[in-house]
Write a structure and sequence with these properties.
148 residues, two-stranded antiparallel sheet
Length: 148
């Protein structure tokens, strides 16, 4: 571990704050964990506590743990992967996406519109569900409230 601030800290901050790309946040975590400086510690701590995508949260937690980061004098706590909805009002958002599409839309149409209308929600579920994302959408779409 290098005891200095990364030369590209501003770029890493931007990536760590990008709520529309869990992959960029994970990339930032993997770079920040190589540098033991206050800025790296702060960013990793924030992601370890608050990130919606468990993959990012866990990676940030492991990196912060390796640096012996504490919050309020106590070690960070990871907890279990949350169950239930990651985003408030997701049913309403998915219903709006469905209702904005023509009658015979494809899954790809739905995903593109979901990403366009709600990029942060799309990213959260894409990151959380991983390879099961399409299957999850196929299960959720038919269960959405009917058009009025």
């Amino acid at each position: 571990m290098i005891k200095e601030t990364p030369p590209n800290i501003e770029e890493l901050k931007r990536k760590a704050n990008n709520q529309n790309s869990w992959r960029e946040r994970l990339e930032a975590v993997n770079e920040l964990k190589k540098y033991d400086c206050q800025q790296s510690r702060d960013i990793l701590t924030r992601l370890a506590i608050h990130d919606v995508v468990f993959t990012v949260k866990e990676a940030a937690f492991r990196a912060a743990q390796a640096m012996n980061v504490t919050k309020g004098g106590k070690p960070l706590y990871l907890g279990k992967k949350p169950k239930g909805n990651l985003v408030d009002g997701i049913t309403k958002k998915l219903t709006r996406v469905r209702d904005s599409l023509p009658e015979n839309f494809t899954l790809e149409d739905f995903k593109a519109e979901f990403q366009r209308l709600y990029p942060a929600a799309y990213d959260a579920y894409d990151g959380d569900k991983g390879k099961q994302f399409d299957k999850w959408l196929n299960n959720v779409i038919p269960m959405l409230p009917k058009k009025k």
